[in-house]
Amino acid sequence: MPYEIRPMLASDIEIVVRLDREILGQSIGESTFSDELENNPFTTYFVMNDTDSQEIIGHIGVWVDSPLAQILNFYLVPKLRRQGLGEILLQYAFTYLKSRYVNTLTLEVRPTNLAAITLYKKYGFRKVAVRKNYYQDGQDADLMLSDL
Prior knowledge:
A seven-stranded mixed β-sheet has the order 1-2-3-4-5-7-6, with helices on both faces. It is globular. 31% of the residues lie in helices and 34% in strands. By secondary structure, it is of the alpha+beta class. It has a domain at 3-105: Aminopeptidase (3-Layer(aba) Sandwich).
């Protein structure tokens, strides 16, 4: 499938919020995304889209405070997982972060999300802490860290 990765635009917000809610079970919402895109110099959001249909198929957001950064959200639509696209999107983010002189990257992940944890470990992430009751449903989050 032909794809492109590009910065998220204001016109993408409604779709990304819908995907956030469907895939992650929560979203920061349209007004917060709008404010982040316009006013927050620390956050950058990217979308991956199918170049034929222009449908958004993935999303990753990062908070950069060099030399530190955090992955905020990262996903692919479920029907396209396990095809290497997630790795491509993650590698794209790594390249962006390295260009911003980031050397330490963190993220939170549900301990039940074994596919994501396996991917993160492949790219050097290690579990460093647990954040109790992190998610809205009360589930904990594993805090993972990687040295880029």
